[in-house]
Amino acid sequence: MATTPEPSSRTFTVVSGQDLWLWRQDARMSAREAGISVAEVDWLLQEVAGLDPLSLRLESFKARSHIELRYPLSVLTQLWQRRLCDRLPVQYLVGITPWRRFSLHVSPAVLIPRPETEYIIDLAVSATGQSQTPHLDAGDWADLGTGSGAIALGLAEVFPDATIHAVDYSSDALAIAQLNAQQLGFESRIQFYQGSWLSPLAALKGQLSGIVSNPPYIPRDELQQLQPEVRDHEPLMALDGGMDGLDCIRHLINTSGDYLRPGGVWIVEMMAGQGDTVAQLLHQQGRYCQIQIIPDLAGIDRFALAYRQS
How many Å apart are CA 156 and CA 148, to the nearest integer? Predict the structure, then answer.
């Protein structure tokens, strides 16, 4: 099986536009045959050849005599075969994925950040603006289960006066998150911790302005029903939410009250259909107020938002 080249070991090769066009035609045909979106071929070429969407759509690149590729066409073919045969996500193929305004390094050690999760950053901004507690945007925020560091980076961008504390149980995930922070210029603004949820942040009890998390929330019995791209390649630890999918969310509800300052913001992502139960758990816990279940941009209940009672 071909291995995916490491992002740090890139070499460049030059091909003609005609040769790349022929490769693209073959790849698009194989994508259709495999039931994979042909748009993934162009996404791959944007990353490895630096081609813009318009030149791909118009096929104007075909007339170019020289196009620089990150990998030789033979390696690109091996990568695409992994997408077809192993159902390896295209983001893992090139080790990069876009998220908000960032281009993030990813590997099978981290969950691929989803577009729908981007909205969690906007919710954090609006929640601080609506809070009765002053200066939440300048305090300490936690991103629990940081993975690639996407949420921590998003918080660091929108809260320039805040310190972000990013926690993950996986040392491999933290290495990716730290790399992203360094390459995007946020390494001085984000502190990284290896451990389980809030455990490494004991010194910040009662001080956090906000806690944000995209925890595992897939019910265990449903894991085998996931697409092979997710089931076979993304980290199980980031997916498995226990028998009903709510193990991690329950833990966060029960522990976050000790860490948030009065009026502090609590936001988690969840699975469609879990909203009523999550809201009920927050009410029953007794330390939260202004509890809201918020849909994503597709209208699907996706986020739970609450405030620590004053």
Answer: 14
Rounded Cα distance between 31 and 37, Å, is 6
Q: Which whole number is the average pLDDT over 225-241?
A: 95
Residues 83, 92: Cα–Cα separation, whole Å: 9
Encoded tokens for 288: 């939260």
User: How far, in Å, CA of 140 to CA of 226, rounded?
Assistant: 36
What secondary structure letter does DSSP report for 86? Answer: I
Mapping DSSP to helix (H, G, I), strand (E, B) and coil, where does residue 183 land?
helix
Half-sphere exposure of 147 (CA within 13 A, CB side): 25
258 φ, ψ to 5°? -75, -20
The full DSSP string for 229-271 is HHHTTS-GGGTB--TTS-HHHHHHHHHHTTTEEEEEEEEEE--
The contacts of residue 167 (CB under 8 Å, 6+ apart) are 142, 143, 144, 145, 146, 192, 193, 194, 195, 197, 198, 200, 201
Alpha carbons 119 and 182: distance in angstroms, whole number:
23
- The candidate with the shortest Cα–Cα distance to 156, out of 110, 191, 201, is 191
Yes or no: say if 108 and 233 are a contact pair by the CB < 8 Å rule: yes
Report the sign of the C-alpha dihedral through residues 237, 243, 245, 248, in that order. Answer: negative
Backbone torsions φ then ψ of 287, nearest 5 degrees: -115, 10
pTM of the model: 0.91
As to burial, measured by CB atoms within 10 angstroms (0-12 exposed, 13-18 middle, 19+ buried), residue 169 is: middle
pLDDT band at 11 (very low <50, low <70, confident <90, very high): low
